[in-house]
């Protein structure tokens, strides 16, 4: 997919949202839709508006706006390779930025409510995260397309899933991050939520 096609796809999704042709995904089968949506519109929105996070996403957008599909694929492959490697320069750089430190602090202070938090730029590439994600590009996943792709007020809820290691039930909730000055979408944020904590 070329850069122009990526921009066109984003423009179409945003246009559909403006015309009311796309509704926020409230995961009809997610029995926790109401408290998760309240969490998204309250605490997660507050996290998303943090100046450190907004600045990091805005800065990354300046760089990634020039990426084509081949570059995005290259970065995603590098990230995936580093997940299980001894040397993790790309992952370490992302986890070491101020916005990631902020999200790690938010997760630590949540007393177990948040199992992960990560934010992307306008291309769906990770800009900040509290823990390591399995991939770098979220742009082809519902958590990005149904939040960022659906407009400024969108809320996207994931399926309820059981974490085998902890035996807890979790769901992801995602919203669009907007520029506080203009209200324009600049990225997305996704939080993994321990449903027993709601």
What does this structure look like?
Helices cover 42% and strands 19% of the residues. It is of the alpha+beta class and 198 residues long. It has one domain: PAS domain (Beta-Lactamase). Strands 1, 2, 3, 4, 5 and 6 form a 6-stranded antiparallel sheet that branches. A hairpin with a 4-residue loop joins β4 and β5. The longest helix is centred in the first third of the chain and has 16 residues. The N terminus is likely disordered.
Backbone CA Rg: 16 Å
CATH-derived architecture: 2-Layer Sandwich
Main sheet record: 6 strands, antiparallel
Parts with pLDDT < 50 across at least 5 consecutive residues: 1-26
The CATH homologous superfamily is termed PAS domain
Whole-number tally of structural domains: 1
Q: What count of helical segments does DSSP give?
A: 7
Number of distinct beta strands: 6
Shape: globular
Cα separation of the termini: 40 Å
Question: Average pLDDT across residues?
Answer: 88
CATH topology call? Beta-Lactamase
Give the class-level CATH name.
Alpha Beta
SSE-based structural type: alpha+beta
Helical content class: 40-55%
Strand content: 15-25%
Concise overview:
Helix content is 42%, strand content 19%. By secondary structure, the chain is an alpha+beta fold. Mean pLDDT is 88; it is low at 1-26.
Record the SSE blueprint.
Layout: H1 3-18, H2 33-48, H3 51-64, H4 69-83, H5 89-95, H6 98-109, E1 114-120, E2 126-129, H7 142-145, E3 155-157, E4 161-163, E5 168-178, E6 185-194
Antiparallel strand pairs: 1-2, 1-6, 3-5, 4-5, 5-6
Helix pairs in contact: 3-6
């Amino acid at each position: 997919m070329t850069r122009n096609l990526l921009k066109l796809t984003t423009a179409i999704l945003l246009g559909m949202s403006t015309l009311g042709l796309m509704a926020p995904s409230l995961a009809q089968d997610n029995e926790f839709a109401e408290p998760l949506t309240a969490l998204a519109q309250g605490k997660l929105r507050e996290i998303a508006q943090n100046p450190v996070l907004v600045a990091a996403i805005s800065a990354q957008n300046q760089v990634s706006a020039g990426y084509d599909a081949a570059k995005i694929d290259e970065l995603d492959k590098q990230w995936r390779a580093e997940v299980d490697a001894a040397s993790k320069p790309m992952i370490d750089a992302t986890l070491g930025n101020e916005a990631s430190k902020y999200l790690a602090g938010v997760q630590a202070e949540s007393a177990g409510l948040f199992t992960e938090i990560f934010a992307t730029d306008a291309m769906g590439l990770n800009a900040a995260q509290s823990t390591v994600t399995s991939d770098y590009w979220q742009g082809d996943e519902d958590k990005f397309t149904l939040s960022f792709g659906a407009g400024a007020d969108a809320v996207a809820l994931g399926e309820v899933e059981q974490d085998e290691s902890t035996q807890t039930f979790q769901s992801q909730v995602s919203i669009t991050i907007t520029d506080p000055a203009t209200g324009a979408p600049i990225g997305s944020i996704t939080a993994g939520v321990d449903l027993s904590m709601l």
